[in-house]
Write a structure and sequence with these properties.
Distance between the termini: 58 Å
InterPro entries: K+_transporter, K_trans_C, K_trans_N
Number of domains: 3
Subcellular location: Membrane
Number of helices: 20
Largest sheet: 6 strands, mixed
Keywords: Ion transport, Membrane, Potassium, Potassium transport, Transmembrane, Transmembrane helix, Transport
Structural class: alpha/beta
Membrane topology: Multi-pass membrane protein
Function: Potassium transporter.
Length: about 575
C-alpha cells in the first residue's frame, strides 16, 4: 500500500470512530480490556520469539553501562535521539489519569506484571530483528511478526489503536466536563450515555472539533516521524506539568515534609528534563502542533474564566436589597398587570441585579414574580416531587417567590414540556403548606413578621391585631442584610412611630389570585449581561474581552435554548458591565 492509501484508510477509521461516539462506550466497553490484554500478550510473545530466533545477545542492553558508553561519544545526534526514545514510554503519563477510575493496586499489578514486561520483550525483540535486518528499520514492527500470524496481528494492532484512540477521546470529554464545572470553558452540551457510570459522557461540539483536528494531523503530516514528534512533545510537557503540580499538592494537601518534596522533584526532573530538551529540538519537525493547540485552548479557557468570574462577581455584589424592594411598595413602583413572570437567574439566593433593571426600564410587571434558578446535580435523576424548592421573597402582598429547579445529569430540561405546569403546581402546594406552618419560617421566608418581632431583642412592639388586618408598630425601622437575604430589625434614631402595614390575605384568597394570574399567562424574563472592557483598557484586554469573549458567548448555547423557553413568551433584557 502507498502512503496515500494508508492515510485514506486511517481517515475513514477515524470518521467511523467519531461518528459512533454518541452511542457511548457502555455497550462495547467490556471488549476494551480483553483486546488490550491480547495486544500486550501478542507483542510480548513476538518479541520473545525474535530474541530466540535472531540474536539473544541483545539482552546485554539491560546493562546500564552501555547507555553511558552511548552518551560518552558526545555527538549532538545522540542527545536528540532521546526524542525518539521518548515514544517508547508514551502512555505512562496516563497513569495519573487512571487513578481517577481504578484503584492504585490494580494499576500497579497491571503495569508491573503485564505492561512493563511485555513492552520490554517487544522492544528487545525488535532490536534483535534489526541487528540482522538493518534495512527494515523503518517498519521493523510488522516486518518482525512471523508470517503465519501476520494478518491476525494486523487486526489486533488496528483494534488496539482504536481502543487507545477511544481512551483519548473519553479523556478529552472528561477534561472538558471538569473545565465546565470550574467555569473555565464555554457552555457546551454534555450528554450522559450511561445510567451506571457518571464518567461516560458525550460532548457533540468537542467530538467534531477533535475529529477535524485528528484528520488534519493525519492527512497533513503523512509522516509517522512527524506525528511521533508531535506526540512526544505533548507527552513530555504533560509529564513536566504534572511534576510541578504535584509540588503544591504534596505541600498543601498531603502536608509532606519539604525534604521529601525536594527528593521527588529532583528525581522526576532528572528523568524528564533530558527528554524535554531532546524533544524541544524537534519542535520544527512536528512538535509545534501540540504547542499551538495548547496555546489556543489556554487562551480560550483563560479569557472565558476571567470574564465569567468578573460577571459573576458583578451579579453577586449588585444583588438588590430587600430594603429597596420594600421601599417600592407592593406595586414595586410599577403597574402590576395580571399574569406570572418567570425571571431566570444563576443566583440561588438574593434578588438579581437584572430585576432592578426590569423595574427601572419596564412600565409594568406581572402580578406574580417567580425567580427561577436551574441547578444540575451530580446524580442520575431527580424525582419530579423533589425537583422544585420554593421560597417566598418579601411580604405576602408582594407575590414574589423563588424557585430552585434541580435536575440530574440524565434529566433533560429542554424536553420538559410540562415545566411551567409543574412549577405552578408546586407554587400552589407551597402556598397551602405555608398556611399550615402557623407562623414558622426560614431565613428567607418573610411571611409572618410578627413571629420575628416577638423573638427580637430590639425595641419593637406589637400594638394590635384587628379586623383581619395585621398591623405592626415599632420605634425601629427595617434594614436589609444582603448576605443573609433576611430582614433585620434595626433601632432607629428617629422619634415617633414608624408604621408599616402588610395586607393580609387568607390562603384561599391567595390561591385564587394565583390561579387568576396563571390563567392570564406566563412570560419568561432572561437577563443578558454583556461584558465589555473599559475604554482606558489596554489593547490586549480589549481584544480578549470585546472580541474573543464576545465570540465565545455568541457561539456557546444561549440560555433560551438551555431553558427551552418559547419565543412568543420570551423577553430578553440586557445590561452592560465594564471591566
Amino acid at each position: 500500500m502507498s502512503t496515500d492509501v494508508v492515510v485514506i484508510v486511517a481517515v475513514f477509521i477515524l470518521i467511523g470512530l467519531f461518528c459512533m461516539q454518541h452511542y457511548g462506550t457502555d455497550k462495547v466497553g467490556w471488549l476494551f480490556a480483553p483486546l488490550v490484554l491480547l495486544w500486550f500478550i501478542l507483542i510480548g510473545s513476538v518479541g520473545l520469539v525474535n530474541i530466540r530466533k535472531y540474536n539473544s545477545s541483545v539482552l546485554k542492553a539491560y546493562n546500564p553501562v552501555y547507555i553511558f558508553r552511548y552518551f560518552r561519544r558526545g555527538k549532538s545526534e545522540i542527545w536528540t535521539s532521546l526524542g525518539g526514545v521518548m515514544l517508547s514510554i508514551t502512555g505512562t503519563e496516563a497513569l495519573y489519569a487512571d487513578l481517577c477510575h481504578f484503584p492504585v493496586l490494580a494499576i500497579q499489578f497491571a503495569f508491573t506484571l503485564v505492561v512493563f514486561p511485555c513492552l520490554l520483550l517487544a522492544y528487545t525483540g525488535q532490536a534483535a530483528y534489526i541487528i540482522d535486518n538493518k534495512d527494515h528499520v523503518v517498519d521493523a514492527f510488522y516486518r518482525s511478526i512471523p508470517e503465519a500470524i501476520y494478518w491476525p496481528a494486523f487486526i489486533i494492532a488496528t483494534l488496539a489503536a482504536v481502543v487507545a484512540s477511544q481512551a483519548t477521546i473519553s479523556a478529552t470529554y472528561s477534561i472538558i466536563k471538569q473545565a465546565l464545572a470550574l467555569g473555565c470553558f464555554p457552555r457546551v452540551n454534555v450528554v450522559h450515555t450511561s445510567k451506571k457510570f457518571l464518567g461516560q459522557i458525550y460532548i457533540p461540539d468537542i467530538n467534531w472539533v477533535l475529529m477535524i483536528l485528528c484528520i488534519a494531523v493525519t492527512a497533513g503530516f503523512k509522516n509517522q516521524s512527524q506525528i511521533g514528534n508531535a506526540y512526544g512533545t505533548a507527552v513530555v510537557i504533560v509529564m513536566l506539568v504534572t511534576t510541578f503540580l504535584m509540588v503544591p499538592v504534596m505541600l498543601l494537601v498531603w502536608k509532606s515534609h519539604w525534604i521529601l518534596v525536594v527528593i521527588f522533584l529532583v528525581l522526576s526532573l532528572t528523568v524528564e528534563l533530558p527528554y524535554f530538551t531532546a524533544c524541544i529540538n524537534k519542535v520544527d519537525q512536528g512538535g509545534w502542533v501540540p504547542l499551538v493547540i495548547a496555546i489556543t485552548f489556554f487562551v480560550i479557557m483563560h479569557v472565558w474564566h476571567f470574564c465569567t468570574v468578573k460577571r459573576y462577581e458583578f451579579e453577586m455584589h449588585s444583588k438588590v436589597s430587600m430594603a429597596w424592594i420594600l421601599g417600592l411598595g407592593p406595586s414595586l413602583g410599577l403597574v402590576r398587570v395580571p399574569g406570572i413572570g418567570f425571571v431566570y437567574t444563576e443566583l440561588a439566593s438574593g434578588v438579581p441585579h437584572i430585576f432592578s433593571h426590569f423595574v427601572t426600564n419596564l412600565p409594568a410587571i406581572h402580578s406574580v414574580v417567580v425567580f427561577v434558578c436551574v441547578k444540575y446535580l451530580p446524580v442520575y435523576t431527580v424525582p419530579a416531587e423533589e425537583r422544585f424548592i420554593m421560597k417566598r421573597i418579601g411580604p405576602k402582598n408582594y407575590h414574589m417567590f423563588r424557585c430552585v429547579a434541580r435536575y440530574g445529569y440524565k434529566d433533560i430540561h429542554k424536553k420538559d414540556d410540562n415545566f411551567e405546569k409543574m412549577l405552578l403546581d408546586r407554587l400552589l402546594i407551597f402556598v397551602r403548606l405555608e398556611s399550615m406552618m402557623d407562623g414558622y419560617s426560614d431565613s428567607e421566608d418573610l411571611t409572618v413578621m410578627e413571629h420575628k418581632a416577638k423573638r427580637s431583642t430590639r425595641s419593637l412592639q406589637l400594638i394590635e391585631k384587628a379586623g383581619g388586618n395585621n398591623t405592626m408598630s415599632s420605634t425601629g425601622d427595617l434594614s436589609y442584610s444582603s448576605s443573609q437575604d433576611s430582614i433585620v430589625l434595626a433601632k432607629s434614631p428617629l422619634t415617633g412611630n414608624s408604621l408599616t402595614r402588610y395586607s393580609s390575605q387568607t390562603p384561599g384568597d391567595e390561591l385564587e389570585f394565583l390561579n387568576r394570574s396563571k390563567d392570564a399567562g406566563v412570560v419568561h424574563f432572561l437577563g443578558n449581561t454583556v461584558v465589555q472592557a473599559r475604554r482606558d483598557s489596554g489593547i490586549l484586554k480589549k481584544v480578549a474581552v470585546n472580541y474573543v469573549y464576545a465570540f465565545l458567548r455568541k457561539m456557546c448555547r444561549e440560555n433560551s435554548v438551555i431553558f427551552n423557553v418559547p419565543h412568543e413568551s420570551l423577553l430578553n433584557v440586557g445590561q452592560i458591565y465594564y471591566i
